Task: structure prediction
Amino acid sequence: MTGIKKWLSIFVCVFLLASLMACGGGSRGGSSSSPAASSSSPDQPSAGSPASGTGEKKKLTLWFIDTGKRKELIEETVQEFMKAHPDIEVDAVQIPNDTYKTKLPVAMGGNNPPDLFHSWGGGWLKEFVKAGQVMELTDKIDPNNYLPAAINIATYDGKIYGAPLAMSLTLFFYNKEMFAKNNLEPPKTFNDLLRIVDVFKAQGIAPIAMANKTKWPGALWLIYLANRIGGSDIFTEAFERKGRGFDDPAYVRAGELIQQLVDRGAFINGFNGLDYDTGQSRQFLYTEKAVMELQTSSYITNVRSEMPGFEEKLGIFPFPVVEGGLGNATDLVGGVSPVFSISSKTKYPDEAVELLKALTSRELAQKFADQAGVVTAVKGVEYKDKFAKMMNEYLSQAQFLQPFYDQTLPPEMAELHKDTTQALFGKTITPEEAARQMEEAAKRILDK
Amino acid sequence: MTGDASRIRRRNSLNKGLFLCFFIGPALLVYTVYNIYPIFATFFYSLFDWTGIENAKTYVGLENYARLIRDHIFLRSLGNNILLVFASVLTQIPLGLALALLLQSKIRGMRFFRTVYFLPFLMSTVAIAILWMFIYNPTFGVLNQVLGDIGLSSLQRSWLGEKSTAMGAVIATICWQFTPFYMILLRAGLTGIPEELLEAARIDGCTPWKSFTRITLPLLVPTLVTACVLSTIGSLKYFDLIYVMTEGGPDSATELMATYMYKQAFRHFGMGFASAISTCMFILSFIVAVAILSLDRYRARGGV
Result:
């Protein structure tokens, strides 16, 4: 008996200790800035400490997030750069998108940042610029090498903090074959879109695929609708606090149109719980259970790697206009990725600028266009890829490029924008309430 | 003579002390640096308005905590955590006990079942999350398929996409994941109960139910207390599965304190506020653990 009791008590003790440690572990997450940063440094040699062992070589660290073909091309460029500069060693680390968003702030907060790093420009990069973590590039690179819309996204108060490489545009991706079978043309107006929705709905096919767990796919709808209803300046006015606000009737109307689409059953079932990254919306297009999807240009890369046979059925069309709206049919919603920036803590600023130039060179941009089907942010690229050609045409017609809100707004508002839009799609909030919450946050955060 | 003896005794105890330090020291050091220190550091950071990416912090006193109490998303996540605690304790432990008892009975192929039942616990959380996302998929998922096949298509839902069902769907997955752990824990407790006691009861004509309620269950109480503490604390600081399956959505329906803390720290750049959330989590877990343990001590002193 006593033996058993002893065993049980030891058992209990061990588990209590374990649970206490678990408590500690739980609360560590929030404060992980310094300890986590130092514990994450062993897996990539830090920028601060010169390469030990190789001694005389100058060591640069590059963090980027591109995958697939784009990753290969960036790595290739880095190899060539090292061959051309034998005294420099570059450690290029590819980090998955979501991990990266956590890892970079931790590295910055721990004063242990990479020399060159990826961003999307906009409000996210601005946080680091404000914190004095980013090197100014105004005199170091030639802004004329890049498309103005692209370089502007990393320019704050006339100072340049990043160089762009590729663009991503938001367009409809659709099944041309299914449209042709029903004698349908890509919609020119929102009412056309509603008619198309009804045609497919009547056949028991979901008209529009969307996977909105991560919230940004749904946000694309709101951004486009607000643009088409309120005109090109609606967001700029609200963001810069000049003129209309986030509670403008245009935003309310955009929310109403979203809910109108939801009520018509335009979207696939349960879209708010589906995951875009694991292809839960794309599989609807691949299996012809849905006909179109509003997405960014990386859709093409995904189709090519997941379902190459689908490419011949794949078509693209721009977002339709809304009847009575102020927006132009040619305005595009898009973003720039990657934008490369240099840490203000780098030990070798000149070498880092050289690498930055190589990473945003016309040569690499041309390869991106040819091999990854991407529209680039660099001037003078010739497009051969079918989709890249079409997108470049849309881009050259566009007088205005509306950046993604979540990459322009300060982080807290960006999250609110995505949260309220997801709630709009889920019909758990009214368009008025969503607009009111956004404007309230804008007053609190942007006006100060 | 006596002087000699006490000197030897003193030397022995000194040796023993050194000996203990030698063994405990390194572990204690690691524990202090990686567990104790961060707890206090977290509390320290929670007193500042700090983005986490710059060196400058602004001291704001308890402002972060005041904000916490007004923040309705935090309150909802706290509610979700409490729901998860009750759901976990009330389903995982009874189910685990039932399975543990089942595994004690002498059925052919017991080893096979034991392995199968334990499998969910061996899988990585992310794998489980993705697996169940496919099961819950409204169009292609097994669950809706089965519901449709047995004529219950009115019950088909987009389980993770609707506010009303998302939390339940996630809790079901968490229970599926952790029940095997309590099964093994309680089975270990059961093997500790001496066979003679049960045999004696059987000879005296005790029914299986009586021998369970009068012998097995009371002897199992210490293990059950452990299970309760683990389950409660685990639920209060739960993070990974929810983060992968729903990211706290839709519309914060499945937000937990830990997922909210993560978002505040790394999406909103609010390290100070996030530290306040995690300090709250720590205090809550601590209070609950102490409460359960002192209840148990009270029970033990009661001489049951």
In short: The longest strand of chain A covers residues 167-175. The radius of gyration of chain A is 24 Å. Residues 188 and 255 of chain A are 20 Å apart (CA to CA).
